[in-house]
Inverse folding.
């Protein structure tokens, strides 16, 4: 972890422009509108030379073709760690021709209409950030059918910001809790696709079009997308992105289905690998089938993981979720250490709460194994590694993780809390009533 | 243990590979249109056959993706030809050898085959005879056309390497150890790397096993050997993903196959003669020179098409000794760098810490899995490291001073 500030630089490999020079950077590589990968480099390693760009382009493009080209074994299913399980054959790769042409095809911008899509943004006391987010939503190539802002602040302070955008529907949900706010958004929405993003996010101009295309092309009930860092100016932001892996760094589309669920079940199905709440979308039917967000979870309640707990229910009941990195959003990571630590603590606490909820819902012992064995082992290994190898600051973050885990353990004993799980299904019935 | 080594071309139909009696495994070198794209080791039962089905499964998993990458590289090259350097530099190939006439002949033979179709305008081959005890080395060289012979009286690999540096005339100097044989694309690969990357400090290349006839050779290759993969890599003065870089310069490659900008090496003062002295300190010289080239601000390139086959140590005791010298050479290099490169001291200290932590981790792993050989190799390397840290560089300095005085 260096102390220098990093730029986030976007390089289009189709034109092989080496990008602007400058200090250290996280380079995000694209082929036109298709995101290919990221690579962090110090000033000494920059600028990238043409042979290096060509090699990166070849490696990234090969990964895209394997994941998107039917002739080469696509679509790929997620395997154990949420990695792609390649299905390429020698024959397929020997016969493949005009590869750049195929790549160009996958990189064409989506022109799918988003008129049947509600975009739901939940916000709490973040006026300026919300304004940026709404600007990015207003600039979509395919305008969504409706944009709903659910204001989760006590005094409804986002109303002013929303007033600046003519097409935004404003809903005030004074009872704190991200899940509650998300559910209010679902109830208020009138369309068949519901896409969620957060108030600390700016979405790519093609975001809604890509989600609409993915729903049209693939038979899935849920979609997640790529979350890239908007900025890496502070040490806290770099720590979150580089040390903690940000919101995932996979650039190929993956199917998370029953098989992924079964493979990872022994250690509490690894549903958090599916994506992030800052970039997810559902068919309305999902909420009718498995219920809405669990209001005991999520920011403002247990901490987080309200998104992954819903995916858990989706997969456990035979559904599938598609991760489609063409749907891109840019997330503003927490810029201060205390904020980052609070966030990490909330993540871990929420994670434990979600594991308890998942165990209660479906009875998979893997959830308990993860709380009692897997996580402590991970803490121990991380501790030893951080002690000897760093990076500096990792130990502090680990402390927050352990605190979060400890704060999450009491959920196991809160029997009253654990009995409330029926609420999700009641919510589902509500949603049905509205939908009709 | 004895593995058959097979070299297959994937554009041709797969054929079963039969092992003879006594062979219980396969080292598979895979090419696509002649280009090296993968190497895999497969354990099989004694004298059995690697069937087409098994080959196909292996190729699907390990080689198919690399073919795709190679094809894309070709397409991208055609799409946007880059402003490559107009002309190739001149090249000197330097082989330092001592009392190994037979291996030297083998290497010179393999060089003869690639030399004919070289893109280089000027190629010279230089054999530095490092104080061999008899004339066998001189006689071996006499059997080949256009090979220059230089005798270096001061025994020690880096004495010989420096002698080559000053006797050579090429812009680029490519060093080969006498226990390697070059791949048929070795020179083409080096030419490609030179054209693509003008102004770099040097090149390292792929090192594959020459044979896998003994347990020691197989074990060495299984533990990583000298292999650094089949993708081009760039090395600079610093690396985002490794805060200790360039101190751990072993990732660049190995001294048995490396090339440099000759003028740069002369400017840097050549190789450190206190390293790579043969017994008792037969290592560290390559680490040191890679490190100094990177520290001078010039990048180095790892080019997989610039490939050689290395004959690994034959017996387990020899191999154990090699690991011992790895630890020894690593620490001698670190002690020396710590003294001469103040700016990087924190990294050298961290490297020593990390190295011991890493070795102990490997030992614990080997012990917990009851792997006797692994454990003994690990102990040898660790002990070499401790011994190296305890003043080996100074002992070596004293030894070479004596050698210099004996051979003024």
């Amino acid at each position: 972890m260096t102390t220098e500030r990093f730029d986030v630089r976007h390089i289009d490999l189709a034109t092989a422009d080496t990008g602007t020079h400058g200090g250290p950077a996280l380079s995000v590589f694209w082929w036109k509108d298709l995101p290919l990968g990221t690579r962090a480099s110090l000033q000494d390693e920059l600028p990238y030379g043409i042979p290096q760009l060509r090699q990166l382009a070849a490696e990234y493009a090969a990964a895209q073709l394997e994941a998107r080209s039917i002739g080469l074994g696509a679509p790929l299913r997620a395997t154990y760690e949420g990695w792609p399980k390649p299905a390429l054959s020698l024959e397929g790769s020997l016969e493949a021709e005009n590869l750049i042409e195929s790549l160009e095809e996958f990189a064409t911008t989506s022109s799918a209409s988003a008129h049947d899509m509600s975009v739901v943004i939940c916000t709490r006391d973040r006026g300026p950030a919300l304004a940026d987010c709404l600007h990015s939503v207003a600039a979509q190539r395919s305008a969504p059918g409706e944009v709903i802002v659910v204001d989760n602040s006590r005094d409804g302070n986002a109303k002013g910001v929303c007033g600046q955008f003519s097409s935004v529907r404003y809903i005030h949900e004074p009872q704190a809790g991200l899940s509650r706010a998300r559910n209010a958004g679902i109830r208020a929405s009138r369309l068949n696709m519901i896409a969620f993003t957060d108030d600390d996010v700016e979405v790519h101009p093609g975001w809604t079009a890509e989600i609409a295309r993915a729903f049209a092309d693939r038979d899935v009930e849920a979609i997640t997308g790529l979350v890239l860092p908007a900025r890496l100016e502070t040490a806290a932001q770099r720590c979150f992105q580089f040390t903690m892996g940000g919101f995932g760094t996979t650039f190929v589309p993956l199917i998370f289905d029953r098989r992924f669920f079964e493979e990872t079940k022994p250690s509490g199905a690894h549903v958090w690998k599916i994506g992030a709440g800052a970039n997810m979308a559902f068919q309305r039917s999902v909420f009718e089938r498995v219920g809405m967000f669990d209001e005991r979870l999520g920011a403002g309640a247990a901490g987080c993981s309200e998104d992954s707990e819903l995916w858990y229910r989706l997969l456990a009941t035979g559904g599938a979720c598609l991760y489609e990195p063409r749907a891109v959003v840019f997330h503003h990571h927490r810029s201060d250490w205390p904020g980052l630590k609070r966030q990490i603590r909330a993540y871990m606490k929420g994670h434990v709460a979600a594991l308890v909820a998942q165990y209660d819902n479906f009875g998979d012992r893997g959830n308990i194994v993860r709380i009692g064995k897997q996580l402590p082992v991970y803490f121990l290994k991380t501790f030893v590694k951080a002690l000897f190898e760093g990076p500096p600051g990792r130990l502090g973050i680990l402390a927050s993780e352990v605190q979060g885990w400890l704060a999450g353990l009491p959920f196991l004993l809160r029997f009253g809390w654990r009995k409330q799980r029926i609420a999700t299904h009641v919510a589902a019935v509500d949603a049905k009533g509205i939908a009709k | 243990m004895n593995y058959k080594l097979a070299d297959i071309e994937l554009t041709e139909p797969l054929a079963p590979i039969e092992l003879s009696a006594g062979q219980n495994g396969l080292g598979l070198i895979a090419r696509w249109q002649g280009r090296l794209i993968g190497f895999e080791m497969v354990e099989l039962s004694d004298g059995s056959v690697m069937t087409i089905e098994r080959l196909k499964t292996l190729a699907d998993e390990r080689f198919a993706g690399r073919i795709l990458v190679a094809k894309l590289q070709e397409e991208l090259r055609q799409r946007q030809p880059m402003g490559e350097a107009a002309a190739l530099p001149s090249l000197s190939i330097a082989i330092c050898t001592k009392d190994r006439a037979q291996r030297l002949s083998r290497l010179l033979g393999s060089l003869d085959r690639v030399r004919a179709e070289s893109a280089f305008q000027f190629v010279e081959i230089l054999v530095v005879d490092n104080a061999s005890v008899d004339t066998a080395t001189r006689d071996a060289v006499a059997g080949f056309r256009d090979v220059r012979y230089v005798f270096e009286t001061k025994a020690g690999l880096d004495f010989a390497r420096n002698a080559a540096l000053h006797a050579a005339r090429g812009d680029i100097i490519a060093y080969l150890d006498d226990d390697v044989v070059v791949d048929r694309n070795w020179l083409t690969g080096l030419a490609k790397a030179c054209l693509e990357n003008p102004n770099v400090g040097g090149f390292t290349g792929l090192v594959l096993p020459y044979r896998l006839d003994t347990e020691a050779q197989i074990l060495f290759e299984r533990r990583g050997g000298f292999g650094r993969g089949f993708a081009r890599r760039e090395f600079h003065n610093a690396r985002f993903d490794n805060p200790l870089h360039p101190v751990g310069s072993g990732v660049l490659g190995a001294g048995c196959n490396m090339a440099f900008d000759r003028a740069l090496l002369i400017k840097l003062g050549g190789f450190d003669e206190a390293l790579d002295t043969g017994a008792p300190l037969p290592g560290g010289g390559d680490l040191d020179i890679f490190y100094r080239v990177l520290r001078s601000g010039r990048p180095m390139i790892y080019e997989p098409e610039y490939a050689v086959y290395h004959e690994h140590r034959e017996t387990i005791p020899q191999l154990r000794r090699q690991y011992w010298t790895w630890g020894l050479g690593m620490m001698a290099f670190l002690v020396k760098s710590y003294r001469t490169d103040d700016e990087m001291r924190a990294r050298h200290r961290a490297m020593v810490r990390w190295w011991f932590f890493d070795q102990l981790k490997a030992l614990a792993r080997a012990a917990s899995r009851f792997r006797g050989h692994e454990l003994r190799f690990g102990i040898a390397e660790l002990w070499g490291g401790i011994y190296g840290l305890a003043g080996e560089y100074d002992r070596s300095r004293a030894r070479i001073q004596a050698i210099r005085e004996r051979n003024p």
The longest strand of chain A covers residues 321-331. The two ends of chain A are 53 Å apart (CA to CA). The longest helix of chain A spans residues 337-362.
